[in-house]
């Protein structure tokens, strides 16, 4: 078989309207399942994008894959996991996801939502936790995997990190994000070939490509907001034919980063991905021996200022969507809003996963800080 040309769907009406002409080029749609839900007491219900994407699936007849950010495979405990797995089971019956991936690292630790995957310090305990999470995910969608994640810093050296991911995914798949890897290698100055050698390519089921910008301090961000840089395409051309179990090459581009002028660029990128995929001939994943699971401690390295800033930014975005008063105050008096938000973020642990949950926390805090 040849790998499919994938495209990640963003839950945003303007973005969806703009990318419509690209749909005939897409052979696999990728969705972030939690963006299709809204919380309702102890349950998760479908939101309007859920309906829209399901219609797209029925209309095009093309397969879908799930790519989540919140399963947090390194988390020792996660009270919400059962609820999320239950919801995924319902969605699997509707979407028949071809596979389900999440990110290497943790997005939740001690109940706190970091929103961004944070690195782990490699340990047997962390490997076992990741395997246990993947096994739970595979009880819902049979083929699952973990993505190489963008980290501002690592919990170990790059090759140790790659070996760690390889251990975590010994019975499952790997999602290799090439922009992510290129950005990380540029920031942390490591050798991409050595990383790929340590990771091994035999379990790579999907490749992501995207673009990104540099932060003010020069750090390259995996921000999915620009065209795919040429070095990433060159990397794709070299690496994809070496992945014997590759099922898709997927383009990522975030909402609010696309204008009409970007559509021909995105069309060209999808065409180039297709040309690469047609040069690949792939088969099935090799068998692997699962090892017994014995959960142990998980540790993350201290957070960098860049990570703290990015996590606060994601929280700010959740809040603006989840509370009208916060939204209006930010529009009217951004300085006052920022001062209030800083205090709120310091005083209230980030435990919300959805905008309306963040809005509730904010309103309770504001009632004490009028
Ligand atoms: Fe990615």
Helix-strand blueprint:
Blueprint: E1 4-8, H1 13-19, E2 28-31, E3 37-40, E4 43-46, H2 48-60, E5 64-67, H3 81-95, E6 100-103, E7 106-109, E8 112-118, H4 124-138, E9 144-147, H5 158-168, E10 173-177, H6 178-188, H7 192-199, E11 204-209, H8 230-239, E12 248-251, H9 263-277, H10 305-322, H11 324-332, H12 334-347, H13 355-368
Parallel strand pairs: 1-2, 1-12, 2-5, 5-6, 6-9, 9-10, 10-11, 11-12
Antiparallel strand pairs: 3-4, 7-8
Helix pairs in contact: 4-5, 5-7, 10-11, 10-13, 11-12
The site of fe (ii) ion has 5 residues, from loops.
| Biggest β-sheet description | 8 strands, parallel, barrel
Helix content: 40-55%
Uncertain regions spanning at least 5 consecutive residues: none
Say what the CATH topology of the largest domain is: TIM Barrel
The named CATH superfamily of the largest domain: Divalent-metal-dependent TIM barrel enzymes
Spatial order of the strands forming the largest sheet: 1-2-5-6-9-10-11-12
- How large is the radius of gyration? 20 Å
How far apart, in Å, are the first and last alpha carbons? 61 Å
Percent of residues in β-strands? 5-15%
């Amino acid at each position: 078989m040849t790998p499919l040309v994938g495209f990640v769907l963003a839950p945003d009406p303007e973005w969806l309207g703009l990318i419509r002409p690209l749909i005939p080029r897409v052979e696999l749609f990728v969705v972030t399942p939690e963006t299709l839900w809204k919380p309702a007491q102890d349950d998760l219900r479908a939101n309007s994008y859920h309906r829209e994407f399901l219609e797209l699936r029925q209309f095009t007849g093309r397969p879908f894959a799930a790519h989540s950010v919140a399963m947090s495979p390194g988390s020792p405990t996660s009270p919400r996991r059962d609820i999320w797995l239950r919801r995924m089971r319902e969605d699997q019956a509707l979407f028949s996801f071809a596979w389900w991936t999440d990110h290497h690292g943790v997005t939740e630790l001690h109940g706190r939502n970091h929103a961004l995957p944070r690195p782990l310090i490699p340990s047997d305990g962390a490997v076992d936790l990741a395997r246990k999470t993947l096994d739970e995910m595979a009880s819902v969608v049979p083929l699952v995997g973990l993505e190489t994640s963008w980290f501002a810093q690592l919990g170990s050296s790059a090759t140790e990190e790659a070996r760690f991911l390889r251990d975590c995914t010994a019975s499952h798949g790997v999602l290799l994000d090439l922009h992510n890897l290129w950005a990380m290698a540029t920031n942390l100055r490591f050798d991409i070939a050595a990383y790929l050698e340590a990771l091994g390519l035999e379990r790579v089921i999907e490749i992501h490509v995207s673009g990104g910008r540099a932060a003010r301090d020069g750090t390259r961000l995996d921000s999915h907001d620009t065209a795919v840089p040429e070095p990433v395409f060159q990397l794709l051309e070299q690496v994809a034919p070496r992945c014997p179990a590759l099922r898709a090459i997927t383009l990522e581009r975030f909402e609010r980063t696309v204008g009409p002028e970007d559509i021909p660029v995105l069309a060209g990128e999808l065409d180039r991905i297709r040309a690469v995929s047609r040069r690949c001939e792939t088969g099935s994943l090799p068998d692997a021996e699962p090892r017994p699971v014995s959960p142990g401690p998980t540790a993350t390295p201290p957070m960098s200022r860049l990570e703290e800033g990015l996590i606060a930014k994601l929280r700010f975005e959740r809040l603006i969507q989840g509370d009208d008063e916060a939204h209006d105050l930010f529009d009217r008096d951004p300085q006052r809003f920022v001062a209030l938000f800083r205090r709120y973020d310091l005083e209230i642990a980030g435990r919300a996963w959805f905008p309306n949950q963040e809005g509730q926390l904010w309103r309770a805090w504001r009632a004490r800080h009028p």
